Each structure stands twice: as structure tokens, then as C-alpha cells.
Amino acid sequence: MIARAAADGCTTEVSTILHRPQDPNCLSHDGMSPLGMAACCGHIEVAQLLLEAEAWINEIDHDGNTPLTCAAYRGHNDMVHLLLQAGSPTNTTNIHGDTALSRASARGYTDLSNVHGETALIRAAKRGHLQVVRSLLAAGADREVAMQASKPPKLPKAGPSWHSSG
């Protein structure tokens, strides 16, 4: 019941269910956590409620995807930012060996930056990887976004967290 409400973005219903109390980690019939469903669907307010109720941030689904992996893959940038701020690990891999960053990159999100504000374009250029720079530019990496992203975002410093600057 809570998983369906989370997937549907029903903030009031999720809040009501959590006040009964209800386990915020109760899996759906297909093995997804309420936080995972909210993350996949981009429901920020629902995710915030679940995180406040101590939902497991690194709960994996049947494919090994975390809420962060799903949000990154679907391009829910605000959700990615929320999950990173809440301490979601960035190096967890799914059953295919993909991390949240690799899943986002596979979808064409070329202007990702780490907590130091470095996009892949900046990192490749700093290290002299000319072919990588050319490939990123050909794939649509934005030079302006790379320059704007060189200012560090205010994110936690726990690990190599990534976020989308687009």
C-alpha cells in the first residue's frame, strides 16, 4: 500500500500511512521499496517523507538498482541531489555492474559534475585526454556548463558524489 502511494506521488497518503506507524521499507509485490518507487517517479516530497521516516537509502530492487541509480537513469536531477544530500552511496553497482553515474551517462547526461564541480569534460581536459574531450564535445557536453560547474556545489564531502548540472 505504501509502495503504491509512493509510486503515485500521493504525499498525503504516504504521510498518513507513516503515522500509523508503517514500515517505510515495506517492499512492493515486484520487490521495490517505497523510496525506490518515489525516486524512479521523481516524487521529491514523498521521498523526503520516507527519508524522514528512516527509509533505507541503499535498498536495491530486483535488478540491483538503488533509488539513486533509478533517479539518475530517469533524469530526475532534483531527486538525485536529494538522495546525495541524504548520503546515498554513489559506488553501488546493479546486476549489470552499472553505477548511478554510468546509468546516467548511458542516457546521454554529459554534463555531470562531482562534488568539486568538475564535469567529465573538465577532468578529461585537466588530465590531457584529448580524445575523451573530443568525444564528450561530440556527444553534446556543454563547455559553458563545464565552466559554471567548476564552482563547487554545496554537497556532502562523503565520497565521490555526482550530480547533474543540467
UniProtKB/TrEMBL annotation:
Residues 144-166 are annotated as: Disordered. Keywords: ANK repeat, Repeat. It comes from the Eukaryota. Transmembrane segments: none annotated. ANK repeats lie at residues 30-62, 63-95, 116-148. Pfam families: Ank, Ank_2. SUPFAM superfamilies: Ankyrin repeat. Signal peptide: none annotated. InterPro entries: Ankyrin_rpt (IPR002110), Ankyrin_rpt-contain_sf (IPR036770). The keyword Secreted does not apply. This is Ankrd17 protein. The lineage of its organism: Eukaryota, Sar, Alveolata, Dinophyceae, Suessiales.
